Amino acid sequence: MTHRPDAARGGRQRAASPADSAARLGRRKFLQVVGGGAAASLLPWGVAGTLPAYAGNAPSGSRAAASSGAFGPEPPLMHGYSAPDIKSWSPETDAYAPYLRARVPLATRIPAFEPTQARRGLDPRPKLMSLANDYVQPGNATEGYKYGPGFEAYALRFWQYPDLYASWHGLPLEGQHDADEPQYGIINLPNPGYTEAAHRNGVLSLGCWFWPRPEDFSEVVEQRTDGSFPMVDKMIEMAGYFGFDGYFINQEAQIPAEQAELLMEFFTYFAEQAPDGFHLQWYDSLTVDGRITYENEFNEVNSPWIVDEDGNRICDSIFLNYWWNDQRVRNSRQHALDLGLDPYEVVYTGQEIGKDRFAQPYDPRHIFPDGEEPRTSWAYLGAEMVWYTVDADKSTVEGQAAVYQRERHLWAGPRQDPSRTGRMGDPDPGDPLDPQGWDGTAHNIVEKSVIGAVPFVTSFCAGTGTGFFIDGRRVSDDGWFNIGIQDILPTWQWWVRDADDEPLDTVTVDYDYSNAYDGGSSLLISGELAAQETAIVRLYKTALPVERTTALELVHDIGEGVDVEVGLIFEDAPEQWEWVSLGDSPRRLKGNWLGSSRPLASYVGRTVAAVGVAVRAGDTAVSEVAVRLGQLSVTDRRRRSKPGAPSSVEVDKVTRDGDVASVYLQWSAAKNAEYYDVFHGDGADRAWVGRTHGETFCVSALDVPDVDRSPIEVEAVTVDGHRSSPTRTWLDW
């Protein structure tokens, strides 16, 4: 991906230029990583690697140094793939392949429902593509993991806005992670943890094709005598095995005209062979005769990569380069229409979030003009900048606070409220991290939801934690990251009103890592309320039909001085809240948690369109509101399933380094299991060591106990939280 030729002008602050990055790495390694040509001007390491050259805090050092004290020996490490690697690929020979699969199916999103939108009247047709890194964890310049130990990792909290997520995190080829000059692959797979989170929210997850790489391009476009392409066949097979949905194609170096012709045949064959729902997105770079030119609009130069002259589709969409203006966006829309294409399905106008941040020199209002219908869809490069632009100790909750505040600025606007989006001033190129000149993603992209059937259960687990909780009991004190087990998070972060539907800034909402009911976090509503004042927090967009046996359940910890009710908005009366009391006799659960269950039979035949909560002060002002929500669920009391226990739990291998080990486990699927929890130890020493949606898991790092043998157990859990008995195996030390 390129940046504007004049990006360094105008006083724009750049923490580290590409030349600075080259000096750090050494010129030979830098050129090997990024290749030549325009692509070298703005890339993540490994695509080229991980952190963009403009990030300023790109990690350095070996994998061992970067991850010291975190992972055990030989953890399940992701890697890149060369063309020969791909053509000979097999899961039997790919290191750690069974442990790097995404196992959450793609959820279906519910239809748009304008009356509950945060921004009324917003057109739901434009889509959003986010091309981004993943965890940005220590050592990520050469490393990628589905999950791991340690809290210092970024977990995206705003899946309700993207429609496509693509990985911008290239990785070295297998076996080269610790090399002084590692070679990176032409293909990197999307992080499987991120794919699972994307799928849970109805978002397609794409791998990344990046060229140039230091290999022979003729290997890529090798064609069989029958006209087929071996690399295409294997790329489809790999996507099916690893559980993702397509590829983003960044072909950004000149190739001979005859190879460009073959590449067109390559993608034509790809379109013919790909399964339904597969997505190929082309980047605005290569011409049909092999030259590099950035058109910055959809036109006759780049549209042949999308549709041929006979109207046959090739790639599904295009990510336009960034140097557009009002006329070019108009041209893009019109060219799509002239070809009989939907501009919202095909044309994604690109925005360099990572480089220009909140001071975008190319105004999104050219894509989304005031008073007119939107012209195209939208695309981001580098939304993970919210993490690496924060200079703090991000191994702590306090250090990450500014990260997630910046994330709310990016997605919900400068007021951190999706119902109050829009810029509060002009963009400031001298201070691109000032959000006042940024409208917010929610200003232009409608929030989406997958909550269309029961059971719906969320424990507000954000995908990372400083410990882990099950049924309100702390079962681990260790930090961890695994966005693959992130719950469906609130649709609106954060939409808070008083009883008169006016903004209420004295009450805030955030994730609380200090206590949880299940997972690593709960939802904390805090602040202050005047006497008789109410705070209404809208949480979830839904389309839940109510039957006679539908029930609402809330696990809560409510501080003194306030009462809480759950609010429902129905499709047939979208301007009106229906309030459900928690009742006078909640169940006492572990710790300070209480559970309230309320039947919804009085609403049978109606459809819940939104869910929220009201926090109400009594006759006395409350200076320290403290309401924790541990779990919210809407279930059918008739359909509660019980899981079978996992069978055939086996230790695949154990790798030990002193007192730390990596333990690879496999088991057979259990009936009705949504996910599995893994525990190590006996009695008081029994601790949670992982959660996964598949039938494989690597515990890394496991502290080796001072005993000859120790047990490891796997429990199956249903979607509504019912647990199986544990299945045990033993580790011999």
UniProtKB/TrEMBL annotation:
Residues 417-426 have a biased composition (Basic and acidic residues). GO terms for molecular function: mannosyl-glycoprotein endo-beta-N-acetylglucosaminidase activity. Residues 1-22, 413-436 are annotated as: Disordered. One of its GO terms (biological process) is carbohydrate metabolic process. Residues 149-467 form the Cytosolic endo-beta-N-acetylglucosaminidase TIM barrel domain. PROSITE patterns: TAT. Pfam families: GH85_C, Glyco_hydro_85. Residues 647-733 form the Endo-beta-N-acetylglucosaminidase D-like D2 domain. One of its GO terms (cellular component) is cytosol. This is Uncharacterized protein. It comes from Phytoactinopolyspora halotolerans.
